[in-house]
Amino acid sequence: MKQLAIISGKGGTGKTSITAAFAALAKNAVLADCDVDAADLHLILKPKIKKTMSFQGLKIASINKNLCTDCKKCHDSCRFNAIDETIHLIKESCEGCGVCAYVCPAKAITMVDRDSGFAYISETRFGPMAHAVLHTAEEASGKLVTVVRNNASDIAKQMKKDIILIDGPPGIGCPVIASITGVDLVLVVTEPTLSAIHDLERVLGVAQHFHIPAVVCINKSSINDDNTTKIEQYCKENNIPIVGKLPYDTTITKAMIHEQSIIEFSDGILSQDIREMWNKILDELKQNG
User: Fold this and answer.
1) Please, are residues 54 and 190 in contact by the beta-carbon 8 Å criterion?
2) Is the pLDDT of residue 140 over 90?
3) Which pLDDT score, from 0 to 100, does residue 289 have?
4) Cα–Cα distance, 74 to 104 (Å, whole number)
5) Angle at the Cα of 212 from the Cα atoms of 205 and 197, rounded to 5 degrees
6) pLDDT at 51 exceeding the cut of 80
7) What percentage of the chain's residues is helix, strand, coil (to nearest 5)?
8) Would you say 39 and 132 are in contact if contact means Cβ atoms under 8 Å apart?
9) 217 has which bridge partners?
10) Angle between the 15-25 and 269-287 helix axes, to the nearest 10 degrees?
């Protein structure tokens, strides 16, 4: 079983659209949407939820008013203003640091689990899918990504799947690290803009740090030839294979409107280029195996 993570240094490069296209091309795959802060792969794949699991992230303070002596040490010590002067918890402000429980002389405060989101196991027209949603303003998205990946791995083992396709989050933070740790190959999707080139270098640095082989796809490559050339030169100098150069094409937007992958919607140039890229990625996975 192989694991491929599709990530990007910034949002909006098209990684989810490419992941959906790969889902249509893969023969025996499990899909994992690890962009838990802003999941959107479901918009194209329309998963039917089979199992829902609660996710507990950071702890939250619980105040026992029967034990409270109203000394206000918790109120004075909280740096997030999560406990008011009447010693009532403001749940939205609690960061789960535990200082209130630490300073309470009456032991009236304990730290308890907080429901921070949900993890799902679903079925799609392309096979099983593990995904999740993190509640607004909640933390521990890296921990939830790990839950999604573990669910995907369990499904793959049970159903004897050949590959796990991971739609990762953008950036270089904890969720990205949790998405790519231990995978066989990372596909970094970039575009020929100055900010994207800068972020491409950063996210490739993360992959290199964890010794994960990486390849690059230049999406919307036709919008700026000079910047596309800069990306090609950077990848050549750093021995990073470019497995795809996809032209700007509004057909992919039309496909999304119809809740379809580009492979399903059209057999045009863009679809053909993505098919070629998929075959190159399969070759890379074999070489790295």
Assistant:
1) no
2) no
3) 61
4) 6
5) 35
6) yes
7) 40, 25, 35
8) yes
9) 189, 244
10) 80
